[in-house]
Amino acid sequence: MEEAHTPTPPLSSASSEGSTDVDIRALNEKIQKESSFVDLLTMEMDKVIIGQKHMTERLLIGLLSNGHVLLEGVPGLAKTLAINTLAKAIDAKFSRVQFTPDLLPADIIGTMIYNQKQEAFTVKKGPIFANFVLADEINRAPAKVQSALLEAMQERQITIGEETFHLPEPFLVLATQNPIEQEGTYPLPEAQVDRFMLKVVLDYPKKEEEKIIIRNNISKAGFPKPNRVLKPEDILKARNVVREVYMDEKIEQYIVNIVDATRHPEDYNLAEYKNLITFGGSPRASINLALASKAYAFIKRRGYVIPEDVRAICHDVLRHRIGLSYEAEAENITSTDIINGILNNVEIP
Prior knowledge:
With 349 residues, the protein is α/β, with parallel strands linked by helices. The chain has helices at 24-34, 37-48, 53-65, 79-89, 106-109, 143-155, 190-193, 207-218, 232-242, 249-263, 283-299, 307-318, 326-330, 335-345; strands spanning 12-13, 22-23, 68-72, 94-98, 110-115, 120-125, 132-136, 157-160, 163-166, 172-177, 196-201, 277-279, 323-324.
């Protein structure tokens, strides 16, 4: 969703942290300069990923916000290709783990191996030690394996034996799940789903886009390859700049109201939702919505957050954080329907 309008920012404004006034014009100029790499990175990804603009944009938001992304879509929609392309464009280490019912936690995080020469146990690190980790079809593995990712996703560290190892930075987990097949799959625990900053639902490409996809795959010249345009250090630097994006206290209140409406819909003229929602978003939802809104403003080359930024990213942040009752499922009401109702009823600043 693009912003409906871009209001002219005030020259200065009181900081939401209560510090001295923020020079919005100077900050805007700084963000426009620092975000120049976004176009370059997007251009490289567009060489390989045709269409799916929503997915590539959300991957960038997750990367810039230090948040993980859960992709849901049928096979063949370039989910694996997208993160591989992103890793190559940033010159980062990429690893892929194909989740299966017989996978063990040690297959992901690593294990202790006895070294006969040294007569001691040594640590063999698993594929989780990479900048970009693709957990392919994550819902095919049992909860014990899925939970092995929890420490890595939340703490950015792994404990093997008595040793704790910090994961490389940046560190992004991209998990995929197939929404069609239910046989042989395990639903993700709510605690783990909440660790994903965004849940992105993918759709089929348009006809014109699919024609280009076919041409790229059967061309004599070979499949397009992205160039390395960034280093991991550039992303870490950009993350610090993203946090400088100005967010007015009214926008903060707007975010709080949206999340609160998932918990107490009756307070926002949505009493009909009370029996449809079993639980709403936690404070982690509010934090992620604020961070993602800042990253979205950064991608749009703007130094301040507007309500349209919050609304544009809201579905991806909240859709997996709203528990639906049996009544909602019986009436074919989805979390998307509920978020639409909330956005239509919560007052926009």
